[in-house]
Write a structure and sequence with these properties.
The chain is an alpha+beta fold. It has one domain: Lipocalin (Beta Barrel). The protein has three helices and eight strands; from the N terminus they run H-E-E-E-E-E-E-E-H-E-H. Strands 1, 2, 3, 4, 5, 6, 7 and 8 form an eight-stranded antiparallel beta sheet that branches. The longest helix is centred in the first third of the chain and has 17 residues. The chain is globular, with a radius of gyration of 15 Å.
Length: 141
């Protein structure tokens, strides 16, 4: 099952990459982080990905962390029906937009970690919003 899902995800990733340049983001506020900073989902990034949904979300911190981070962006894969998710990429940025870190995982490694979000966390809020804001499935004739 996982091997088939990984193959589907790999094919979906290639199709998304071949689709051309993405439109600009459309960040929608879905809540607040524990420090009152906004939590937002990019509604344009929410796309089907294999049997999952993939989308970006971000949180903006009220105060920079010691490493200078003020924004975290997460690319998550979500199984909305089963309430499972995994992070594919996490990008952290300084106030000037320069990169602090960019951590990525292969789809294979990320899918192996697919599991429920920790209850009550910003991540749980974000993945629920990704599911709520995803486009309706396309109808086939």
């Amino acid at each position: 099952m996982r091997v088939a899902q990984i193959l589907i995800l790999s094919a979906a990733s290639a199709a998304i990459a071949a689709a051309g340049p993405p439109r600009g983001p459309n960040w929608v506020r879905v809540g607040s982080h524990v420090d009152s900073g906004p939590v937002e989902v990019d509604t344009r990034s929410i796309v089907p990905w294999g049997g999952l949904i993939r989308g970006w979300w971000r949180l903006t911190l009220a105060e920079p962390r010691p490493d200078g981070t003020v924004v975290e962006r997460h690319l998550d894969a979500v199984d909305c029906a089963r309430g499972l998710s995994t992070t594919l990429e996490q990008v952290t940025l300084r106030p000037d937009g320069s990169l602090v870190a960019d951590a990525r995982e292969s789809p294979t490694a990320a899918i192996a970690r697919l599991g429920p979000a920790t209850p009550g966390t910003t991540g749980e809020m974000a993945v629920r919003a990704i599911c709520r804001l995803r486009p309706p499935p396309k109808r086939t004739r």
